């Protein structure tokens, strides 16, 4: 009897140790709302929407302690539409993220799979679109700098450093996976951030070659590409400063494109979206943002973005204002009200119109949207 009790105690000890060293976490976020838009293809619209601030998702995140400060890590994250139950990211099962790798307390982490680029990782959190305080609709026109993570990078290897007194850096390379065209639809990016007390700053660079084109549908950026272009170069930087209950920030980014043939849905070869002649293009974005906590539960946030663009023989100028107020009902659940106004000028006869991210484009140069929504996290 004593031997049996001793054996049971030993097994319990090992089971407890194994549980402490290995973990798998189920997590998620659901964002559902009602959105009014004054003009979508020439008509007013009131619609049920999913993810108008933060994309609805669920995921699995796990780690295994390998000893000596080394861990095996993985993340599998699914995006979906709460209104229809359909998969997001063009029907991919784990379209938001899917990677596995090794993490070291001393050397950082290296991961492989479908992952976010360095613009998303470093500059995104300093822009209103990369946070819960603005999200999808607060993105710069067409999400041209990918701060709202409209696309992820397939076939990628990513490195992220440990925190060196507030300084972190990293980089990503996405393989084309094409035996006959090493650079056809490849991607790479680098970035760094620094945090010191109330100050946060970051900078990043990203380059895509032949993303969204029909040259290589198994490459780094495919069906969810924002642009179909021979080359895309994006760089950006931002700074945020917190004082008391307030936080203010500024973000600059620029995207340069060569041989641009499509924007939006046309980038993946469909008939919708915007088709262009194949010339060069540029988007330069200037964003001022801020938020204020009236109470621990009640926040007000906003941003103004000016985008100076050049494409298809015209020079559009975009002005966009985003405002959001949110009230936390608990640590997990909040309600929000968000409004967005966008106006574009200088479009000539290009056919470009106002086009708030996440919605159908207006038939005119202005568009207004308002969303009331509920978010819960688990």
Summarize the helices and strands and which ones pair or pack:
Layout (H helix, E strand, L loop, with lengths): L1 H20 E19 L2 E8 L6 E11 L2 E10 L17 E8 L3 E8 L2 H6 L29 E8 L6 E8 L11 E11 L2 E11 L17 E2 L2 E13 L2 E13 L3 E2 L10 E2 L5 E13 L4 E14 L5 E12 L4 E13 L20 E12 L1
Antiparallel strand pairs: 1-2, 1-3, 1-20, 3-4, 4-5, 5-6, 6-7, 7-8, 8-9, 9-10, 10-12, 11-14, 12-13, 13-16, 14-15, 16-17, 17-18, 18-19, 19-20
Please give the domain count. 1
CATH topology: Porin
Quickly count the helices. 2
The CATH class designation is Mainly Beta
Written as H for each helix and E for each strand, in order along the chain, the element string is: HEEEEEEHEEEEEEEEEEEEEE
pLDDT < 50 runs, ≥5 residues = 1-19, 268-272
CATH architecture: Beta Barrel
Helix content: under 10%
According to DSSP, the number of beta strands is 20
Strand order of the largest sheet: 1-3-4-5-6-7-8-9-10-12-13-16-17-18-19-20
Tell me briefly what this model is.
The chain has a single domain, classed as Porin (Beta Barrel). It is 7% helix and 52% strand.
Molecular structure report:
Residues 1-20 form the signal peptide. It comes from Caballeronia udeis. Homotrimer. There is one protein chain. The chain has a single domain, classed as Porin (Beta Barrel). The chain has 378 residues and is mainly β. Helix content is 7%, strand content 52%. The chain has helices at 2-21, 118-123; strands spanning 22-40, 43-50, 57-67, 70-79, 97-104, 108-115, 153-160, 167-174, 186-196, 199-209, 227-228, 231-243, 246-258, 262-263, 274-275, 281-293, 298-311, 317-328, 333-345, 366-377. A 16-stranded antiparallel barrel has the order 1-3-4-5-6-7-8-9-10-12-13-16-17-18-19-20. Strands 11-14-15 form a 3-stranded antiparallel beta sheet, with no helix packed on it. The model is unreliable at 1-19 and 268-272 (pLDDT under 50). The protein starts with a helix and ends with a strand.
